[in-house]
């Protein structure tokens, strides 16, 4: 190994070609930039420093060649003594290892609530370290007051710049499709805002930060639902089908904390979240056996049965909100054992399939058979085991397979089609259903999947959004169609949002009452009768000009056109017909009001 590394670092050169002239120089310092082995060599070099700092009880975090040190004390002098002592040790370590630190590039940040204090004087290698109002660490801007206002301002500025580029290609009646705009928002803008949200999530609860986030989100929401700029944020968010950013930040923060083991009793109660196994716990590559599974069809199934006298069929099932798994152990043509397993109701079928696979391999190891076949109809579970998934059940199954190999037992994995009439598989499916519906004992597996945690957090987010929407003083017309934001969130995604649709659902469009508000029309009255304002509710429900159209739509929908029935008109069976009626009215009214 030493000779390999020596060869890697020897006979290196740098070639520079400019203006037709090439110059070469030999180099014998540092790691090769961009090389595969460079990061590993750097880690080996820096690791002793990190151990030294840990032994000195210094809070330290390192990422590549960026190191963050945190010192605390009751006075500035106490912090100064601690920090300078450690910085001197780091400088000495650098001299011993022929590394030169750059004190002039090192940034110091002071955070305190004291009104009167002496600022610590920090030096490294006889060079003073400068203080800054904020520092940027891995993309997160931290200020001395820990307000994170600078970070919020920075990410909002980035998002607005991207919105301006997008706005050129997404107009009301032409340009990018609203679904494309929504995809860009979810895939680009939200991750930009949510980055490192676990560190600054409490800041999102402040009104000033919420206003900044609303400014960013409002522009995208208007583009997604193709609404006028005068539409309220409440209406725009609901019709765009996107959640308020401040609530998304809190949701992402809670999810991160739960994954890291932070207790959230209101969300988790007495449940424990399922955590992926860390890569550091994987066996050494030299000890990892190549795993795979064989696809079995009707033509090759008989050969598998003949070559594997001992077989174990596995299956998982979720019925009526209950989850179970089962194993059917066969010897030749006879079932010798049937095992049912219970899982908590919040578990998934995927977890049930993995649990059944794990138990099957455990049984294969304990049996006296030298050759056992494990057959499952879950391809995803088999791939998780064979493709080194970090799922804890998959990790345990691979460990059991290695144990079987050490015992000179051949345990083979097979994938068979579900509901193909194969006797063993049908029996395992029957047992799994029985386990899900019939078992009333303590679960064999009760770790909560992350998907369930996400669902609970999303329900809480939608619930808070629904409360805001209900008490908000805007979106009056939208509330006629969608009294609840929670119910609307499930429906809006199914609606083909167009310019005409948005005019109806917001009341902002080429209607006389709306145009009069902005001094674009002298009279807000409808053509049917002076003094009656031309609004969306009037046009859809009362205007005699469209009485025949209203009667026809009532016959088709089987309901009267009243304010109470408007939410029902947006149901799955009525929606398309109702929107055709709305589109006709909007086109007529817009054309009548000078084509606005």
Describe this structure in words.
- The model has no long low-confidence stretch (mean pLDDT 91).
- The chain contains 24 helices and 18 strands.
- Helix 19 (499-506) packs across helix 24 (575-592).
- The strands form 7 sheets. A 6-stranded mixed sheet has the order 11-16-15-12-13-14, sandwiched between helices.
- It is α/β, with parallel strands linked by helices.
Q: What is the oligomeric state here?
A: single chain
Biggest sheet layout: 6 strands, mixed
* Average of pLDDT: 91
DSSP helical segment count: 24
The spatial strand order of the largest sheet comes to 11-16-15-12-13-14
Short description:
The protein has 596 residues and is an alpha/beta fold. The chain contains 24 helices and 18 strands.
Topology:
Elements: H1 2-9, E1 12-18, E2 21-27, H2 38-55, E3 59-63, E4 66-70, H3 76-96, E5 107-108, E6 123-124, E7 127-128, E8 130-131, E9 134-137, E10 140-143, H4 149-167, H5 178-194, H6 197-200, H7 207-225, H8 233-240, H9 245-259, H10 265-268, E11 293-296, H11 298-307, E12 310-319, E13 322-331, E14 334-343, H12 349-366, E15 371-376, H13 379-386, H14 392-406, E16 410-416, H15 423-438, H16 450-471, H17 476-481, H18 485-491, H19 499-506, H20 512-517, E17 525-526, E18 529-533, H21 536-541, H22 547-557, H23 566-569, H24 575-592
Parallel strand pairs: 5-8, 11-16, 12-15, 15-16
Antiparallel strand pairs: 1-2, 3-4, 6-7, 9-10, 12-13, 13-14, 17-18
Helix pairs in contact: 4-5, 4-7, 5-7, 7-8, 9-16, 12-13, 12-14, 13-14, 19-24
């Amino acid at each position: 190994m030493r000779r390999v590394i020596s060869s890697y670092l020897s006979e290196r050169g740098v070639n520079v070609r400019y203006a037709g002239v090439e110059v070469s120089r030999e180099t014998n310092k540092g790691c090769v930039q961009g090389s595969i082995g460079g990061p590993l060599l750097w880690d080996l070099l820096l690791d002793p420093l990190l151990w030294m700092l840990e032994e000195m009880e210094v809070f330290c975090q390192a990422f590549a060649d960026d190191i963050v040190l945190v010192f605390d004390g009751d006075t500035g002098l106490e912090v100064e003594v601690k920090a300078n002592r450690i910085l001197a040790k780091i400088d000495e370590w650098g001299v011993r290892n022929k590394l030169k630190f750059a004190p002039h590039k090192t940034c110091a940040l002071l955070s305190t609530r004291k009104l009167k204090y002496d600022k610590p004087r920090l030096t490294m290698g006889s060079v003073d370290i400068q203080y800054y109002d904020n520092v940027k660490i891995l993309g997160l801007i931290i200020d001395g007051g820990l307000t994170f206002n600078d970070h919020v301002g920075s990410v909002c500025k980035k998002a607005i710049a991207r919105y301006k580029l997008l706005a050129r290609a997404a107009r009301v009646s032409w340009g990018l499709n609203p679904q494309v705009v929504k995809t860009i928002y979810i895939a680009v803008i939200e991750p930009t805002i949510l980055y490192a949200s676990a560190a600054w999530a409490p800041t999102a609860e402040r009104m000033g930060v919420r206003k900044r986030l609303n400014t960013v989100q409002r522009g995208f929401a208007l583009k997604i639902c193709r609404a006028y700029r005068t539409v309220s944020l409440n209406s725009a968010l609901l019709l765009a089908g996107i959640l308020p950013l401040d609530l998304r930040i809190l949701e992402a923060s809670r999810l991160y904390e739960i994954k890291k083991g932070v207790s959230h009793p209101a969300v988790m109660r007495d449940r424990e979240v399922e955590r992926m196994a860390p890569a550091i716990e994987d066996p050494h590559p030299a000890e990892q056996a190549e795993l795979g599974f064989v696809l079995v069809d009707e033509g090759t199934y008989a050969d598998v049965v003949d070559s594997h006298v001992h077989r174990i069929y596995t299956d998982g099932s979720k019925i009526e909100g209950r989850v179970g798994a089962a194993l059917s152990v066969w010897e030749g043509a006879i079932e010798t054992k049937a095992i049912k397993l219970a899982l908590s109701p919040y578990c998934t079928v995927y977890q049930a399939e993995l649990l059944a696979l794990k138990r099957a391999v455990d049984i294969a190891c304990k049996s006296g058979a030298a050759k056992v076949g494990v057959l499952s109809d879950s391809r995803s579970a088999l791939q998780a085991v064979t493709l080194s998934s970090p799922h804890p059940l998959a990790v345990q199954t691979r460990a059991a397979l290695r144990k079987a190999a050490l015992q000179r037992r051949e345990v083979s994995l097979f994938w068979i089609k579900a509901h193909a009439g194969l006797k063993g598989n049908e029996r395992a499916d029957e047992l799994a259903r029985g386990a899900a519906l019939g078992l009333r004992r303590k679960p064999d597996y009760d770790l909560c999947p992350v998907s369930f945690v996400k669902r609970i957090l999303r329900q809480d987010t939608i619930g808070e959004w629904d409360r805001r929407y209900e008490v908000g003083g805007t979106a009056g017309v939208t509330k006629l169609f969608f009294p609840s934001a929670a119910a609307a969130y499930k429906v809006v995604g199914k609606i083909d949002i167009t310019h005409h649709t948005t005019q109806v659902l917001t009341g902002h469009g080429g209607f006389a009452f709306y145009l009069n508000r902005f001094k674009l029309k002298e009279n807000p009255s409808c053509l049917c009768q002076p003094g009656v304002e031309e609004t969306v509710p009037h046009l859809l429900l009362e205007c005699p000009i469209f009485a025949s159209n209203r009667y026809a739509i009532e016959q088709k929908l089987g309901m009267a056109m009243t304010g109470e029935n408007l939410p029902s008109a947006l149901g799955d069976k009525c929606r398309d017909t109702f929107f055709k009626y709305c589109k006709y009215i909007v086109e007529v009214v817009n054309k009548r009001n000078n084509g606005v």
